[in-house]
C-alpha cells in the first residue's frame, strides 16, 4: 500500500513511501510528522541589532530598528549615500549618523566652514589677524614687524638724534638724551638757558650753547648756578627734579635707571606670571601665550574639552588637564571617542567550529553541518530518527534533543496522554477524560464546557401577567404584579394597588419606574438584566495587546500600555519622535521604546534644551565683558582695547597726537592707554596747562613767593621766607 497516496505531508513537503509507513521531508519553516507544525523562527533570536521578530506561517519577518536593514536587520544603513560631506571631505559611515574627515582649511559637521586660523591669536604685540583659506596674515601695529609681529622695529636705526644726542629705542618711538645746549624731540633746537630767569636782581641774561651769562647791575656780581635738568636727561617720559647735588629722574611706568633708560622686564619681575604658558615682555606689561589645554590672561584656566561633547553614542566624557579628555564607552562601542563598533566575535561565541561574523551590536554564527542554533550548540543529528511520538516536534539540544509535544501529550518522547481532568476543570459536574481534552457531565441547573454557567430558568419567561422572574440554581422564583399570585403568577389575587418600587427591586444603582401592577429598572452603564443584577466584564475578551493591562470600567474598558505601544488596545507602535522632544532644531532618531537627540547650534542636553555657554571659556581678554549668544558670543571691550576678543590695543597716537596730547606734546602709545611727553612750559595729562600760568593763583603758603619753574612737575617752585 502506498501510504503517500493520501498526500499526508502538508505545506509542499515531500512524501517518501516505506513498508507500512511513510516519511515527510518538510520545507523550510515547517516540522512534525506531517509537516503540519509551524516552526517559530523567532525563538532563535534571528533578528539582529534590536530588530523585532514576528513569526508567520512557515516563515518570519523582522521589523528593524532605525539605521538597520536586511532580512535579519544585519546591515547598517549607509548614512554617506547622500554625499553629505563637502569640499573634498571623506565620509565615514557610523551608527545612525556619519562623520566627515575634512580637508585642510575646512571644518564644521559637513566641512562647509572655513577654518579660522586666527582663533589661536597668533599675531603678537597687538597685531591684527586676517583669516584666509588655509592660512592667515598679520597686520602689525606701528613699531612691530615680522610674520607674527614679534619683532620690535629699531626706531634709532635712522639716527634721528642730532647735535650729539643719544638715541634710546622704544616701541614705535625713540627718545633723545641731548647734549648741553640743545633740546627738542631730536635735539635740533638750541635750548634757551635764560628761560628760567637765572640772573637775579635785575641782571641781564645772555644765552649761549649749553650755558648763559649774566650782566649784573651796579652793586651786584657773581654767576647763577647751572640747572641740572636743563639738558632734559630723563628719557622715555621720565620727569626731572633738580636738587642741590644734581637731578633725580621719576620714571614713567615700565622704565627704570638713573635716566629712565632701562625697560622693566615684567616677565622677570613677577614669579611665574604665565602659569601654563610662555611670558612675552611688553612696555609696562606682558602677555601670555598659553599651552594646549589652558586659557585666560595668566594661562591658569583649564579648558574643559568635554563641553564640545566629543564622546559619541552616549559615551561619558571625563575632562583632564593639558587638553586631554577620556571617554567611557557604552557596551558595544570602543575608540578614543567611542566612534568604533566593538567586534563581538572576539569572545569566540560560536561553538563546534562555527564561523563568527561581526555586526553592529551583535554577531552571527555560520554553523558547520549537523550543528544549529544561535551559537551552533545544538546537534541536529539527534532528531534524524524522529524520536518524538504523537506529532511531537524535535529540537536539537546540545548533543541530545528536546520534544515539544502537541496538546494532550507529555513525557520525554510525548508518549504519555495528559489527564486533563487532573485539574478538576468541571466546577459543577463530573469530568470525563479524552485525548487532548475532556468532557464535563454537568449537575442539574448548570451548563457550559466547565459547568460554570447557571441555567437561566427565566429564559422561557415562565412568570405571567407581568411577573418578574428571579433565576436560582435549578429553579426560579416569580415576583408577581399586583393582583396576581401563584408559582407562575397565573392566579388572580384581589387586593389594593401598591407601589411596586417600594421594595427597591432594582440593584446596583438602577432606577425603578412604577407601573400598573409592575415596575421597570433603568440600569447604570455597565449593568444589565431585569433587576440590573448582571455586571458586564469588558476585560473578559482580553482586548489589550502587547502586554497591556486591562481596567474594567462601568461602560467599557481602558488599556494601560507598556512603553513603546499606544492606541485604545495597545496595538499601535509608538514613534517616540512624534512628540518632537528634541528642541532648538535638534534632530530626533527613533529607537525601540526610546529616542536620541542630535543637537546643533550651541545647544546640548537629552532634549537639546540646555544652552551651551559660549562665555564659559572666558574668551574676552584685557578686562573685556563677554555677552553670551546662541552659538556665539560678543566681547564689550574697555577703553584702550578693541578686536573680537579685545586682544588689540587702540593706538591713540595713530590718528594724530593733537586728539589727545596738546600744545606740541609727543604722544606715546602704551598697552591699553597712552602717555603725553609735554614740551617746555606745559603740564597736565594731555599737556593742556601752561606752566607760566602756574603762579597766577599764588599757590605758595605762609608768605612764600611763587616762581615759574621750567623743570618742576607742578610748573612752579615756592621761595619761602
UniProtKB/TrEMBL annotation:
Gene3D superfamilies found in the cross-reference section: Laminin
PANTHER family: CRUMBS FAMILY MEMBER (PTHR24049), DROSOPHILA CRUMBS HOMOLOG (PTHR24049:SF22)
Domain annotation EGF-like: ranges: 1-36, 38-74, 76-112, 114-150, 152-188, 190-223, 225-261, 263-300, 302-339, 341-377, 379-415, 417-452, 454-490, 497-533, 535-571, 573-609, 611-647, 649-688, 691-721
Family label: Belongs to the NOTCH family.
Phylogenetic lineage: Eukaryota, Metazoa, Chordata, Cephalochordata, Leptocardii
GO MF annotation: an example: calcium ion binding
Protein name: EGF-like domain-containing protein
Compartments where found: Apical cell membrane
